[in-house]
Specification:
CATH architecture of the largest domain: Beta Barrel
CATH class of the largest domain: Mainly Beta
Number of helices: 4
Structural class: mainly beta
CATH topology of the largest domain: L,D-transpeptidase catalytic domain-like
Mean pLDDT: 91
Strand content: 35-45%
Number of strands: 32
């Protein structure tokens, strides 16, 4: 009997264990978490940067639908991530918009809905930038320039230099350090300390869209372009010898007798005109064959006794105020021994034809040992400015 009683007690204990286990499975589960929706920009935000995208993020759930509508009723395009937990607009929010956004997300407790509003910055004025070379022609993708290439950023309205310079990014392959030099509030030039290495690739990215450029002005758009540097073409015109030596990647390939500016000045029409070929480092701007040279274009009347208007073949322009390397058979007697020009570098027809075919924009022409004032940056004298002075011309961000 004792043995049978023990078995009975064990049986009750087993039954009790089963009963307790059964009670445990019958306990109610904890309530589920609702989905939460977060907008960026945050609800009620004003003056949002135009270049920002709109985003929606869901926690503890997934997106079912998104509406992001501007003041005209247009839907902002966008797409959800594969896991349906985020949505991002396919374009930036842009200028001067008022948005109303609505999102529906599904979580453990079912669907939840959230809405938001935001406004983006409204500029007083939009500013565009042109990316050019020193010849003031807009750069085209994969153009090739000489080793004296200077990058020019021209703004169609005055800008805050420091604000702009933060968003002008120049990269080179191989890498080299360069700097911006501001001529005024609309024009900035960029170059390295020394001439570019042949084969260098230069990329300029002006990331200005949505950026404040000062006094209520904002960037109209982003711009980017890449150009290449060709062979090292350097011409050295020395007034001591009155010869132009032309080098191709360090090798002397031609020597050309020249006649440069006759020197001196004259007061004409209330202006003092200089007839020197200014010393300094020029670069090739462009070429024309033929070109009409008119002294009146720089303030010297054709009827002044010193003026002229004539057609010239094989003319290579190296300054913005009308200095050319060009052919002139009439001064061949003086080329190599006497300076008789108004400032241009006269060479023979044969040499001029060869030089015209040899050079490209950005090639270097160094003028040495002449009189007159040094070449000014406004005349195309970027490389004539010492590097220490060039660095002081930056925005100092």
């Amino acid at each position: 009997m004792a043995f049978g009683r023990r078995r009975l007690l064990i049986g009750f204990a087993g039954a009790g264990g089963l009963a307790l286990a059964g009670c445990g499975w019958a306990r109610e589960s904890a309530p589920g978490k609702p989905a939460t929706i977060r907008f960026d920009p945050a609800p009620g935000t004003h003056n949002v940067e135009a270049r920002r995208p709109g985003t929606i993020t869901v926690t503890d759930g997934t997106l079912r639908s998104v509406e992001w509508i501007d003041e005209t009723g247009r839907s902002l395009p966008g797409a959800s991530a594969p896991d349906n937990r985020t949505w991002t607009s396919a374009e930036p929010l842009g200028y001067g918009h008022t948005y109303i956004a609505k999102a529906v997300a599904h979580g453990e407790t079912g669907d939840v809905t959230a809405t938001t509003t935001c406004t983006t910055v409204r500029p007083q004025q939009l500013v565009d930038v042109s990316l050019r070379s020193a010849n003031l022609v807009d750069l085209a993708e994969n153009d090739t320039y000489g080793v004296g290439f200077v990058l020019v950023a021209h703004f169609d309205e005055p800008v805050d230099r420091a604000a702009v310079e933060r968003h002008l990014k120049v990269t080179t392959e191989p890498a080299v350090t360069g700097a911006w030099y501001w001529l005024d509030d609309q024009n900035a030039h960029w170059r390295p300390e020394r001439y570019h290495a042949p084969g260098t690739r230069i990329t300029i990215a002006a990331e200005l869209f949505g950026r404040s450029l000062g006094e209520g002005r904002y960037g109209l758009r982003d711009r980017q372009v890449s150009v290449n540097i060709g062979p090292a073409h350097i011409a050295i015109a020395d007034d001591n010898t009155k010869q132009i030596e032309v080098f191709d990647n360090g090798n002397l390939v031609r020597t050309m007798p020249t006649s440069m500016g006759m020197g001196g000045t004259a007061a004409i029409g209330g202006r003092v005109m200089s007839f020197w070929t200014r010393p300094g480092i020029y670069t090739v701007l462009d070429r024309k064959d033929p070109v009409i040279m008119d002294s009146a274009s720089y303030g010297l009347p054709t009827d002044s006794g010193l003026g002229y208007r004539t057609s010239i073949n094989h003319a290579v322009r190296i300054s913005h105020d009308g200095i050319f390397v060009h052919e002139l058979a009439a001064t061949m007697w003086a080329q190599g021994n006497t300076n008789v020009s108004h400032g241009c570098l006269n060479i023979s027809p044969d040499d001029a034809g060869w030089f015209y075919d040899f050079v490209i924009p950005g090639d270097v022409v160094e003028v040495r040992n002449t009189g007159g004032d040094p070449l000014d940056i406004w005349q195309n004298g970027d490389w004539s400015i010492p590097w220490s002075d060039w660095l002081r011309g930056g925005a100092h961000t």
